[in-house]
Amino acid sequence: MENAPENKLHPLMTMTALSVTAAALATIGVMTGVIPDQTESRTEASSAAATTFATRLAASNRSALALAPTTASSACPGCGTIETVRGKGRAAGKNQQQTGRYEIAVRLDDGSVKVMSVESQPSWHAGERVKFIDGDVMPM
Question: The domain containing residue 79 runs over which residues?
Fold first, then answer.
């Protein structure tokens, strides 16, 4: 009876069982809300950081425009820099489909701001240089 096999698990099998159990418990914790989901906080933090960066960039553009000579505005009437592109979605109909409009705010070189509203999502982004031609925004 000295050669009888012992009823012990191999150490690697024990480690595998423990790691599968830990992963399952972590998944259950995230699904039930006991453990906060890290992707949500990263998304919120990254969008907050992007907003802060865009605000600072817009402020620096405003101060640069304030320091710019006034001859630039007379050289290119209707030229400016996009400040914001905002979506204004609303629910419509029985299916609650999202229909939306987008507002594009452009600070012209003379310091004034023009806001236009479009139905489709624009390809413009804050900080891009554009020119108003016949009520439309065109690239420079």
Answer: 38-139
- pLDDT digit string (tens) for 52-70? 666 666 666 555 555 555 4
For 68-88, what is the mean pLDDT?
Answer: 74
| Burial class of residue 9 in the structure, from the number of CB atoms within 10 Å of its CB (0-12 exposed, 13-18 middle, 19+ buried) | exposed
Burial tier of 128 (Cβ tally within 10 Å: 0-12, 13-18, 19+): middle
> Token pair 């620096």 is at which residue?
60
Average confidence (pLDDT) over 87-103: 64
**Count of structural domains within the chain:** 1
At residue 21, the pLDDT reads 93
pTM score, whole prediction: 0.42
Distance CA 84, CA 128 (A): 10
Secondary structure letter of residue 78 according to DSSP? T
Quick check: is 101 in a domain?
Answer: yes
Q: Which residue has the tokens 């012990």?
A: 8
30 token code pair:
């995230």
Rounded CA-CA distance 73/132 in Å is: 13
